[in-house]
Write a structure and sequence with these properties.
The chain is of the alpha/beta class and 469 residues long. The chain is 35% helix and 14% strand. The strands form three sheets. It has a six-stranded parallel β-sheet, with helices on both faces.
């Protein structure tokens, strides 16, 4: 039986056709779970368009919420060609009934983690007795998971060596889908993780040098993380991951990460408003600790990639305009800016929907770059135009150059900063900015006069409280 696994994707950026840095984990991991009698191939829409003339007997589509309308259209075209279609991924887990409504007779959906149900689904498909819904009922052990099929990943990606050591996160931020999708924080055996690192063979020096941990919070269990870092230290790798800001409070943990080759950590800083942190239940973040935490990472040669979100209840048009100056003063190496998006299944959705502030459930708008709800302290238009303006300022050549030339405390940190800042600055120069849309069809044109440029003066952290109100 021939199976093709497709990771669905739609560009979030104006003018950008493909993103070639690193693929998601899903397709190569599912391919590794296929029995020997399955002839499996994978496809990432990031680098290759869908081939509707594939000779696969079964096509599996995995997708996030923002890609759902597109994925349903892809599924319909495959069904018209007589293919068996399986839908899965985060959006399907959150909306199984919706996914089922987009399938034809003989198709199926997978809800939850696929390790247990995917092989059973394939066996049922081979016997012609596939069920409509496969659901992972209980958490399963992460021991013994096979090594992802890195050999099937397209050559187009710059990096393709991702590894997952843990799943889930011990925290419960109100905007995060993890608690609706995951079943607790779990860890893989370190020997299994090390196998995935050591036995990988890339096609370039960079692929063999850099490891990308596909974890939501790698240091969710600090004893485990320290042991993993000790094991990694002799390998000479450079690696990046996601972690929580409180990692910096454990000096030994940061030192071990640096000794193991950590080039950068993505931290969910989210906001510079203490009130916002309180309302979204991100209690592990303390604004007064941001500067010290970033300095700690830098002192150990680790870059800081900061996730930032605008549109929380305490945000105003004025406070959003302050973000580039605060980012620069704190010394953040790479900022990533998104608009608050209330996904169904999260407490944030319940709060916003309960207040009648949801403007649309057109899932194509749910990418983190569009306004789908009515903000509290500004208009939807102000949020959209303010986000577009701040995004352009953050990726400007001037700002990117300043971040790259921050005191380089290690070659690996400099390389990560140069690579990521350079990529986004290049996109900005080419005009490939976010396609910011307002629910209801109104679009924010890039370069619009309504998008006021953030002011140039430096903003001290002592002024953050004032700027946020």
């Amino acid at each position: 039986m021939k199976v093709e696994i497709i990771n669905c994707w739609v560009s979030r950026y104006r003018g950008e056709s493909r993103t070639r840095l690193i693929p998601p984990l899903t397709a190569a991991h599912l391919a590794a779970l296929c029995p020997d009698w399955v002839d499996v191939s994978i496809r990432h829409e990031q680098v290759r368009p869908v081939d509707y003339d594939t000779d696969a007997d079964l096509v599996a589509l995995s997708f996030m919420t923002g890609y759902a309308p597109h994925a349903y259209r892809v599924a319909e075209r495959f069904r018209a060609r007589g293919k068996t279609v399986v839908l899965g991924g985060p959006h399907v887990t959150l909306h199984p009934d919706e996914a089922l409504a987009h399938l034809g007779p003989g198709d199926a959906v997978v809800v939850g983690e696929a390790e247990v149900v995917w092989p059973r689904l394939l066996e049922d498909a081979r016997r012609g007795k596939m069920e409509r819904l496969y659901r992972a009922a209980t958490p399963h052990s992460l021991a013994g998971l096979p090594m992802p099929r890195y050999d099937l990943i397209e050559d187009d990606f710059i990096l393709n060596h991702y590894v997952q050591a843990t799943r889930g996160c011990p925290f419960s931020c109100s905007f995060c889908c993890l608690k609706a999708l995951e079943t607790g924080f779990r860890m893989r055996p370190i020997d299994d993780v090390m196998r995935d690192i050591v036995e990988y063979r890339g096609k370039s020096w960079l692929q063999n040098k850099v490891v990308w941990f596909w974890d939501d919070n790698l240091i969710g269990h600090k004893v485990y993380a320290k042991e993993l870092f000790r094991e990694m230290a002799p390998l000479g790798k450079w690696w990046l991951t996601q972690a929580s800001v409180n990692m910096a409070a454990d000096e030994e943990l940061v030192r071990l990460a640096a000794d193991a080759g950590c080039a950068g950590v993505f931290l969910g800083i989210e906001t510079f408003s203490a009130e916002n942190l309180r309302t979204v239940r991100k209690h592990q973040n303390k604004i007064d600790d941001y500067r010290r935490a970033i300095r700690t990472f830098h002192d150990h040669g680790i870059g800081v990639m900061a996730g930032l979100i605008v549109g929380f209840d305490d945000d105003t048009a004025e406070s959003i305009r302050c973000i580039p100056d605060i980012v620069e003063e704190l010394g953040i190496d790479v900022p990533f800016l998104n608009i608050s998006t209330p996904f169904q299944g999260t407490p944030l959705w319940d709060e916003v929907e309960g207040a009648g502030r949801i403007l649309s459930t057109d899932w194509s708008l749910y990418t983190g770059m569009n306004v789908v709800f009515e903000p509290v302290s500004m208009s939807a238009g102000e949020l959209a135009s303010g986000y577009a303006a701040v995004w352009r300022e953050l990726v400007s050549v001037r700002r990117a150059f300043r971040r790259i030339t921050l005191r380089p405390t290690s070659l690996r940190r400099l390389a990560a900063s140069l690579g990521i800042n350079g990529f986004y600055a290049f996109q900005g120069v080419r005009g490939h900015g976010p396609q910011v849309r307002l629910a209801g069809g109104e679009a924010e044109r890039q370069g619009s006069a309504a998008a006021e440029r953030p002011r140039d003066r430096q903003l001290g952290l002592s002024e953050v409280g004032e700027a946020m109100h």
